[in-house]
Amino acid sequence: MFDIEEELKKLPGQPGVYLMHGEKDEIIYIGKAVSLKNRVRQYFQSSRNKGPKIEQMVTHIRRFEYIITDSELEALVLENNLIKEHRPKYNTLLKDDKTYPYIKVTVGEAFPRVLFTRQLKKDKARYFGPYTSSESVNNVIEMIRKLYHVRSCSLSLPKDQGKERPCLYFHLGQCEAPCQGRQTQEEYQNNIEKVLHFLAGDSREAIHDLEKKMQKAAEELCFEQAQQYRDMIQDIRRIWERQKITAYGEENRDIIAMAQEEDSDLPERDAVVQVFFMREGKIIGRDHFFLRVSVLDASADILSSFVRQFYAGTPYIPREIMLPEEIQDAALIEEWLSSRIGQRVYLRVPKKGTKEKLVELAKENARMVLTKDKERIKREEGRTIGAVHEIESWLGLSGLNRMEAFDISNISGYESVGSMVVYEKGKPKQSDYRKFKIKWVEGPNDYASMQEVLTRRFTHEGKGEFDSFSRLPDLILMDGGRGQVNICTEVLHTLGLDIPVCGMVKDDHHRTRGLYFRNQELPIDTSSEGFHLITRIQDEAHRFAIEFHRSLRSKSQVHSVLDDIPGIGQTRRKALLRKFKSIENIREASVEELTLTESMNTLSAQQVYDFFHKP
Predict the structure, then answer these.
(1) C-alpha closest to that of 583 among 382, 391, 383, 441
(2) pLDDT-derived band at 399, boundaries 50, 70, 90
(3) Would you say 278 and 253 are in contact if contact means Cβ atoms under 8 Å apart?
(4) What are the pLDDT digits (tens) for 64-79?
(5) Distance CA 79, CA 82 (A)
(6) pLDDT tens for residues 533-580?
(7) Which is more confidently placed, 172 or 337?
């Protein structure tokens, strides 16, 4: 029994992160503190003015835990990571998790390349972006190849010169074949300098050169070639016409503003944060992010949470971030962002002039997106959160967040595989999907295979307290009726776990017709969002198993589970099969018997034994 009063006395006065747990031991809030002792105790002091949201949250706390850090800055970073992992109910959360495309110029190479990337690394390359569309990046790279004949191969030049024949781009006239020594390094570098100017937004030189070539081709009556140059000029203007030229200097900055839904009678409401990306004085793109916020949250707190989550996940951080108002922990966030890029980052709140107008423009865009997408958001929530609520009402449950579904499939009747898919808040969480290659069961025995999969899943030892695989589901969905549910219930009972189990019952045409729960079949409305969600989960579990089959076949790993044992190569595998004749005999052998096999030693024998006997 967790005694909150006693545990409060044990809190250290050091910086760190605290995690509040609710009635089902789920994490409902994560925060950071300069002094854990002072901060956590404040939640349970009746004399403190905590605000309505925190007051409500405290009534649901059943226990807390904490992690000590060396500084408040470390606590900020850890808090961001844990919020992203656990997505607690009472923290303000981003609905979007986007990775932006960039253009990378490998200027550290003798013959640099121009590449598409979504990762910024601390290397000698130059990066341009972020762009809000991968299509835009590919269009720009294609244009650069046509204009400047930059190579696309991955050869290490000049070391690999002459080792391979020129590629297709050489024959298309889009590469001068430096791989064959047909272009000097100096000539190539001159083109790269032009590429860098082009990517920085200076397209005047490129257009001027193309206009001269177009004029010359026309004078020589090469009208088809002249038309090609004309089309390239139009393409360049199209690419850059979206770049809004501004008079705010050469600084790189992001402009952030927010709009919230008004007059909401619910405890939560929608909000949209708009971000403009300005690079070298030009707005190169913009994006918006949906949030679900409490009506009790102050706008400054929402913006502070957004800034921390957004810049924890994006690889590029500009020197200046403009905001509509002062936010919480601004100085600490500046320190954290500065440490990430190795130079000073400023959070500014412009009060007048063109910069203030830019923030207002971002705010207007946020309002527009919120209005335009309000119905779409509601439809999406109907398909996800609304569907989960329907399932709760059918089963008489509440608080369904994480649902796990399992399926078993055979490969040519010889070997079975299992799949596990995870849905949280009605959406697939693919990072938590798991696949199982059956190793305890011989032949196509679905019930025994399912028993193995469930046993391995629920006896899995996580890599740490926050390993997502160590989190238990609120509901288990089985791809079948009474038989599959009974198998799952038996496994859970053996392991001492109390988790609701529901079967997805199919009709004669293999279509879901109802749910089997607590020894009875429940009819469901086949036109409801809850039914559609159940169907999606069932199809996803089956799809994931089928894809696993394909990957096994493509790797020629289907014939033996011995392929999956670390340290057991082809020689030892053949020796084991020669001695024991079958997988079943190998499974039943002792470590001593395995050691006596040709080519085996004590370590490899232990590895084989552990593979078949450890969950």
Answers:
(1) 441
(2) confident
(3) yes
(4) 988 888 788 888 878 8
(5) 5
(6) 998 898 898 888 888 766 665 554 445 677 778 778 878 888 888 888
(7) 337
Q: What is the 3-state secondary structure (H, E, C) of 136-160?
A: HHHHHHHHHHHHHCCCCCCCCCCCC
Tokens linked to 113: 């390349």
Sign of CA dihedral 317, 321, 327, 329: positive
Could you give the 3-state DSSP secondary structure of residue 253?
A: strand
d(CA 287, CA 98): 10
For residue 224 the two structure tokens come to 């088809």
Token reading at 77: 């970073």
CA distance 330 to 2: 35
Q: How far apart are the C-alpha atoms of 141 and 162, rounded to whole Å?
A: 25
How many angstroms separate the Cα of 375 from the Cα of each of 275, 378, 381, 614? 22, 5, 10, 51
Q: What is the CATH number of domain 253-372?
A: 3.30.420
Determine how many CB atoms are found less than 10 A away from the CB of residue 76. 20
Q: What is the model's pTM?
A: 0.43
Whole-number pLDDT of residue 348:
92
* Closest by Cα among 98, 97, 137, 136 to 117: 137
Instruction: For the chain, give every residue range classified as CATH 3.40.1440.10.
Output: 4-91
Residues 6+ apart with CB under 8 A from 605: 591, 592, 594, 595, 597
Crossing angle, helix 330-341 and helix 299-313, to 10 degrees?
Answer: 10
Domain 4-91: state its class: alpha beta
383-554 has which fold? Nucleotidyltransferase; domain 5 (3.30.420)
Half-sphere exposure of 456 (CA within 13 A, CB side): 24
Just give the CATH number of 561-613. Answer: 1.10.150.20
Structure tokens at 381: 């929530």
Of 62-71, 232-241, 354-363, 523-532, which gets the smallest average pLDDT?
Answer: 232-241
